[in-house]
């Protein structure tokens, strides 16, 4: 089907693109000031909090060092090819996630709208997690960390501090000072009745979130000229902190126990299908194809930029960062096991935000120089989160502004302010006493199966409808060489198959629970509606296109309007 279309309208570029069809842009497009601005922005988006809290847990749960085999294979055959595809699409067509489909396959334009809705859902909860980190960061400026003891007003009789003490009995009802600080002081979950009654808004968290969004606004309001400078700090600082924490963790008693637990291979796990599915899910969510971010960031590149090399470098950095984070986390977990006189497995049960807000802070509180390490740890978390927020919101900004350039081209500051305001208001429910329950719900359903389904359809639309040969020609026009057979096979067959398998496996999730609270049945139905509300844009737009476009299904409809170049904007593709 792809062979019917001619060279897309965006193929002529002012800096040396293929000279086929030219339509001068009404407004000159911004470009990255330096190549490193782009690379750091991509790395900053891909390397986020999930690299620190998710990968180590998934790794030890699925066979330790043996898990690196399926993880590497899934990266090579699934994640990296899709990463490369999105960078090439964005760089060639120089436009965002919504209007790009006019040039690829118009009937799939609903993918762009779905991407923007998913981006909003993620912003509703992800920035709240950064606000929690900011609260911890502020609380760390104390000679004695507030989660180091049980002598605080928020503590309960169940609070048990075992560090530096002998003959301490730990029961199923025992709670560490760090856990009670997180649940009873930061979140104040005790004032909530669950999702039925989330309670009022925590004004301290509201202030923290306001400060986060203020930073985000002034980093994005002028476009890549400002965000490209900010990432020099936010994308590099986490690596300095990770190295400091790694060195400190390696010197702790029992650190070797954690490393052995992290990497000890369990080859039998490789026979389990679930391990391979977890590896694929981890790499897809980690690299982040489908969120529109790679499209947006690459669209500000020079036409002949080597996006192939960029894809290999940035995806390798992402995977290595995940691996490094595992050492940072598990050296500390080994230390905690040594102090508790238990197995590492008994202290390595937390995953997600709990790992970052309970387990690791608990270990930091009992180190020499605890205040310093707490400050740099939560500063690292803030910068990791901000980078991903920059990318996620830039995807929405670029998509909408490129779709409506006549209205928004000269009003970027106002549009970004409006978008930030919407995100802030949408986050208010996560700032309540029961806000952690809302965060968990949005985290599970806001960008789960829906984003994988979006990536699957995006890959099919480009490889099968637009045509793998045409896409390869586009890449050759930019880079001077055609993608090899390996990449073509991955784009056409292997990557879509892996995406389908992973998305299918995530359809049936176990009942949600958080801190002993079991989510009601209606909340799961609500979660599925949230997930469907973004994906539904795709079939709805297809129906709209079928109903309102004259001609038969396979008919090519050439636009004679001067507003649209004669680039064969086909009905389907």
UniProtKB/TrEMBL annotation:
Binding site for Na(+) 2: 44
Residue ranges of the TM segments: 38-56, 68-89, 110-138, 201-220, 232-256, 276-300, 312-337, 363-386, 414-439, 445-465, 485-506, 526-547
Annotated membrane topology: Multi-pass membrane protein
BP term (GO), one: amino acid transport
GO terms under cellular component: neuron projection; plasma membrane; presynapse
Pfam families the UniProt entry points to: SNF (PF00209)
Disulfide bond residue pairs: 150-159
Record-listed Na(+) 1 binding positions: 46-47, 51, 286, 318, 384, 387-388
Keywords tagged on the record: Disulfide bond, Membrane, Metal-binding, Sodium, Symport, Transmembrane, Transmembrane helix, Transport
Family annotation (PROSITE patterns): NA_NEUROTRAN_SYMP_1, NA_NEUROTRAN_SYMP_2, NA_NEUROTRAN_SYMP_3
Subcellular location: Membrane
Disulfide bond recorded as keyword: yes
GO terms assigned for molecular function: metal ion binding; serotonin binding; serotonin:sodium:chloride symporter activity
Record flagged with keyword Ligase: no
Protein family according to the UniProt entry: Belongs to the sodium:neurotransmitter symporter (SNF) (TC 2.A.22) family.
Name of protein: Transporter
Organism of derivation: Coturnix japonica
Highest classification ranks of the organism: Eukaryota, Metazoa, Chordata, Craniata, Vertebrata
